[in-house]
Write a structure and sequence with these properties.
The protein has helices spanning 27-37, 67-75, 95-103, 114-123, 137-147, 152-166, 181-193, 197-200, and strands at residues 17-20, 42-43, 47-48, 63-64, 79-85, 89-94, 108-111, 128-133, 174-177. It is an alpha/beta fold. A hairpin with a 3-residue loop joins β5 (79-85) and β6. The longest helix has 15 residues, at 152-166.
Length: 201
């Protein structure tokens, strides 16, 4: 886990960008593009109690922790947000690294689920909330089934969750359609480097 010592964010510091959207819409893929092509952007690494998927690296994709450690982070107020996703694993955003990145005036982004985004809005209402939407419902279903990482039961749970998540689009400041990963990612980065980009969206 990262250092949990918080750094105060100076007045007028950089605005945090929060990316959320329905399951399987490609949030992780867009975030990976940003990580590879825009090293100037700081991306938060979430903590989770779910086991790693093939190819995932601890500390890079997620901080993989057990239930006891996750509960400790929650109890000590070290998470900016936390949630149980799909009724199964716990996810949360370590608070201190976010505050440190903002204090350093770095472009900073959280890639989280809807529940987490709502908690961050309560904690950091000045953040910019971006909804990543699929081109269509049919495309979202295709992506989820094509991923092949869930059982049929898990897919049904995720699809039910996605329907609820799609209905929350009006809660967000900006919507980006993920019809092309590179285009969507570049549009997202533009919101982080150009304060006026969100006004034009």
């Amino acid at each position: 886990m990262p250092d949990t010592t918080a750094t105060p964010v100076p007045p007028g510091g950089r605005r945090l960008v929060v990316l959320a959207g329905p399951t399987a819409v490609g949030k992780g893929t867009v975030a990976a593009y940003v990580r590879e092509h825009h090293p100037e952007v700081w991306l938060s690494v979430s903590a989770t109690t779910r086991p790693p998927r093939p190819g995932e690296v601890d500390g890079q994709h997620y901080w993989f922790v057990d239930d006891e450690e996750f509960a400790r982070l929650e109890d000590e107020g070290l998470l900016l947000e936390s949630a149980v996703v799909h009724g199964r694993a716990c996810y949360g955003t370590p608070r201190a690294p976010v505050e440190e990145a903002l204090a350093q005036d770095r472009p900073a982004m959280l890639e989280i689920d809807l529940q987490g985004a709502r908690q961050v809005r309560a904690a950091m209402p000045d953040a910019l909330f971006v909804f990543l939407a699929p081109p269509s419902w049919e495309e979202l279903v295709h992506r989820l089934v094509g991923r092949g990482t869930e059982t049929e039961e898990e897919r049904e749970v995720r699809l039910a969750t996605a329907r609820t998540e799609l209905a929350a689009v009006q809660e967000f400041d900006v919507t980006i359609v993920n019809d092309d990963v590179a285009r969507a990612a570049e549009e997202l980065v533009s919101l982080m480097v150009d304060p006026n980009a969100a006004k034009d969206s």
